[in-house]
Write a structure and sequence with these properties.
It is a single chain. With about 525 residues, the chain is an alpha/beta fold. Among the domains are: about 150-200 and about 470-529, no CATH class; about 215-355, no CATH class; about 360-445, no CATH class. The chain has 20 helices and nine strands. The protein has helices spanning about 15-45, 60-70, 150-160, 165-175, 185-190, 195-210, 250-255, 270-275, 280-290, 300-305, 320-335, 360-370, 375-400, 405-420, 425-435, 440, 455-470, 475-495, 500-510, 520-529, and strands at about 125-130, 135, 215-225, 225-235, 240-245, 265, 295, 340-345, 355-360. It has a five-stranded mixed beta sheet with strand order 5-4-3-8-9, with helices on both faces. About 25% of the residues are buried.
Length: about 525
Amino acid sequence: MVKPPLNVDAFSPFVLKPLTLGLLEENARLASENASLREEIARLKGLKGKPDIKPPSKPSGMDKAAAKGTRRKERRRRGAKAPTAPVEERVIAVPDLPPGSRFKGYETFTIQDLKIEPQVVCYRRERWLTPDGRTVLAPLPAGICDHFGPEIKRFILAQYHQGQTTVPRLADLLQGLGIDISKRQVVRILTENNDAFVAEACDVLRAGLAHGKWISVDDTGARHQGQNGFCTQIGNDAFTFFATTQSKSRSNFLGLLRGGHGDYALNDQAFAYMRGRRLAAPVIAKLMGHPARHFADAATWTSHLEELGISGLKVHPDPVMIATEGALWGAVAAHGFLTDTVIVSDDAGQFNVGTHALCWVHAERLVHKLDTFTSAARKAKEKTRALIWWLYADLKAYRAAPDPRRKAELKARFERIFTQQTCFATLNRLLARLHANKVELLRVLERPEIPLHTNGSENDIRCQVIRRKVSGTTRSDPGRDCRDTFLGLAKTCRKLGVSFWDFLGTRLGAAVATPVPCLSGLVATRCAH
């Protein structure tokens, strides 16, 4: 039986008003839901949705101009910058002065110029024959060891590593300036007889590891001899070090943290590392029961493991890998490196050694990359991102002014953010994963001097990426080592406020206005403050 329609005229206005308001609210809700569904359908079809035009939070330039009138304030012009090089004064006289003119002084006009010209010097070395039959030859000046002087070597090294040019273009440039040089000779200058620079880069790394309160690390792809490898960056605000290897394992990273040493050591730090990595107790007992505790190189260490019968064990975790990592960590401690240093990384597993901290930018990036398919999930994601960045800003403020009461508040906020349950299940799992890294993410509360991100490492390693794009692969081991060495030294000079040009001139024996001292000493001094 069909119900008759309601007689609206029979209802009083007091009854109709709430019914009408309810219908209007329901209509608005359905319209909003319908619009959201249309936008979602358009997005899934790949169509352009309705543009999200937000009102400006601040007055626009047009509003400010309308409020202040049409008169514009003149910008203050910058004055002339004084040159840092020595100034040579030259007086220019006025020709054909009329009689009776009076001298009114000088008007200065300063220019900067560059003088590049080839110079060929022939040294006539005296040669003497002593009464006892010996031939005595006059020595060459300092810095002269082959047929190219220190100035041209400094120019080649600076242009290639700091200027990021290529060997063919560098050879063409020098030949155009009148220098008789080939591409092969340019490559020899870049890759040969640079052992002193490699040693100084190693000393810089040791100074940073021994005196630095924190280091940040990163890696990127690198090709050597036609094979894919990895370039690892280690540094802080005082130094940068690069090393290209064929592996990015934890053993490789621990080997680099030895600062150029090749030994292995079994000490308290090594055994503590093995226990932390859950190495079997009988294996640790074998290592502790043997009197040998120090091993000069990898071959000696490998033979020691074979002698104890550890190499033949087929269990999980791999006892050879864990024992080797522990011995490498023991060598790092034995040389006095990373005694109280925090390692800041992007959560790559090979960097999780010692006192470790995580980059907040990489942590938030995981939330940012989540794919959402509903408006509710998008709202939950954006709300969580806003809470994370809000907490990040307060952590930055805490670094500037640490406060015990503020520390407890920040810990409580971290708990609320990363233990919340949203309508987005994938986001909930990610928040639980980030919550497991609470100690590393909040390391700044205990060590306010460390950074909250690894942006410094990202900036440092960019020069290696540019070099890889410009020149591709390296062909020889000396070429690989020199590329890493000079790029690291150039970055270190920049951080220390030292001219890389003067640094090269000092080391090569060229004329410099201000000699550059040993970089490792400058790094140690900077890290200590």
